[in-house]
Automatic annotation (TrEMBL):
<dbReference type="InterPro" id="IPR036259">
    <property type="entry name" value="MFS_trans_sf"/>
</dbReference>
<feature type="transmembrane region" description="Helical">
    <location>
        <begin position="77"/>
        <end position="94"/>
    </location>
</feature>
<feature type="transmembrane region" description="Helical">
    <location>
        <begin position="509"/>
        <end position="527"/>
    </location>
</feature>
<dbReference type="InterPro" id="IPR020846">
    <property type="entry name" value="MFS_dom"/>
</dbReference>
<feature type="transmembrane region" description="Helical">
    <location>
        <begin position="203"/>
        <end position="221"/>
    </location>
</feature>
<feature type="domain" description="Major facilitator superfamily (MFS) profile">
    <location>
        <begin position="11"/>
        <end position="531"/>
    </location>
</feature>
<feature type="transmembrane region" description="Helical">
    <location>
        <begin position="363"/>
        <end position="385"/>
    </location>
</feature>
<keyword id="KW-0472">Membrane</keyword>
<feature type="transmembrane region" description="Helical">
    <location>
        <begin position="100"/>
        <end position="124"/>
    </location>
</feature>
<feature type="transmembrane region" description="Helical">
    <location>
        <begin position="233"/>
        <end position="251"/>
    </location>
</feature>
<feature type="transmembrane region" description="Helical">
    <location>
        <begin position="272"/>
        <end position="296"/>
    </location>
</feature>
<dbReference type="InterPro" id="IPR011701">
    <property type="entry name" value="MFS"/>
</dbReference>
<dbReference type="Pfam" id="PF07690">
    <property type="entry name" value="MFS_1"/>
</dbReference>
<feature type="transmembrane region" description="Helical">
    <location>
        <begin position="308"/>
        <end position="330"/>
    </location>
</feature>
<protein>
    <submittedName>
        <fullName>MFS transporter</fullName>
    </submittedName>
</protein>
<feature type="transmembrane region" description="Helical">
    <location>
        <begin position="337"/>
        <end position="357"/>
    </location>
</feature>
<feature type="transmembrane region" description="Helical">
    <location>
        <begin position="136"/>
        <end position="158"/>
    </location>
</feature>
Amino acid sequence: MTNSKSSQTWAITLFAIGVFMAALDNGIISAALTTINQSFNVEANWGAWGITLYTLGLAISVPIVGKLSDRYGRKKLFIVEIALFGLGSLLVALSPNFTFYLIARFIQAMGGGGIFIIGTSYVVSTLPAEKQGKALGMLGGMNGIAAVLGPNIGSVILDLTGSWHWLFLINVPIAVFLVIMGITKLEEIKDPTPGKLDMTGTVLLSIAILGIMYGLTNITGLNFFKSLLATDVYPFLLAGIIILIILYFYETRLERKGGDPILPVSLMRQPTYLLTLLLGLLSGAMLAAMIFIPAFSEQVMGIKSEHAGYWMTPLAIAAGIGAAVGGILVDKRGPILAVLFSGIVAAIGFFLFPAWIDAKWQFVIASIIGGVGMGVLLGAPLNILATEKLQTNKGTALASLSLIRTIGMTIAPTIYAGFIARGFSEIPTIFKTDFQSILQNNVQQANLTEEATAELAQIGSQFAGSAEFSEQQMMGIVQNIQDPALKNAVLNSVNEVTTMAAQSGYSGLFYSAVVIAICIFVTGLILKPIRNKSLQH
């Protein structure tokens, strides 16, 4: 912990910019996905591989970069990662065809994946314990804010330039700046290396992660557990798990021989670290709920689709504030209190979405509370818990935590989407049970003419002849209505039914997020005495 104050300030600043740039990229592309697909003339399911490959690259690079940064130095690996990310960004922007574009995205991910890990391991290796929380909170805040704001920033750049290439070209000068400043301003920090690099473990781990992440990204459909049995899911998950088991025994044997395993097997025998990994998985699942906020604002709150992304701003700012609060809490009162605080506040925030929100101001308040709760967990608490009492392998410990969080963020959206799909599948039932009373209420407010009342009677006879009505059938009837006031009343009634279905689906999503937040709180309570006992030894 020998760095000068100036060097520490420079290090945290450079890492914060790097983390923001890398985290921004996966969100920023979503705004231009349709445009990119059209430019390469590919269908949407193929175009999604631009995001899938980036996610796979991140997952593979994180544990490898964590180990390499421990071994060869955080400064060297930061410069390599930034350079690789900048090169990948340039290649993506210059892609002459879709295959080249996918390869370039993978290169970009291999560079972006380790930046946050290197930054956090640098902080816990160089700063005194009482200052680590604030620094980690800042890095976590940048990570969270960038991920949330990515789609909005992507839309702004696309509107200003008219070209998706600029989404990636802007990374190049930032990367060049970070490489130059990294060379001149960062001090080298690394752990002692007990033996040669574990290449066999690296290859096995990469293949296992690739199989598991590929299988997870293919999970779709209303029934999460049923989709696990799909032929493009379970074989890859099974193969990945089997390879991980083989890897664990191989790494244990290598560690006994005095080698330097890529997997932190000794840490995985410690209850404190295992519970920290569980918290990482739960935090990833909780963070994934935020992906659905723009859709909620559009489908439930009635906000226009082009403005829905902007309503993420309160949550993004709150997450940044929460990350700072989490860092201060860790420095003043320790990581467990921050975990408990996060679980309670996030549970309240998520609970308010289905149970309280009727107006936009309520939506903003719920977003702020949920954002603060999530933000507290983003940077400091889990990173401190993962590296406590470690003299070496801090990057490896943090990388495993980051990987397990990524897995949580990959699994949870499929489960959440299932709730939303089930909600919308209730539309025919809602039409059958509630539509007539909703329509009657809207008609009474419309003050219809006699002609419109007669036309309404004709529509009523169409209802009488059908046991069930879908939204599509109802919209077909709406198109044929002649009277504008009646048409508006029926259309409002159809929209109310759709909103009720959406509300049902999102209620399931947010109540699930509440359960996850409570699980974080309970895990923190379980961890507290175990950690205290560990610190006494």
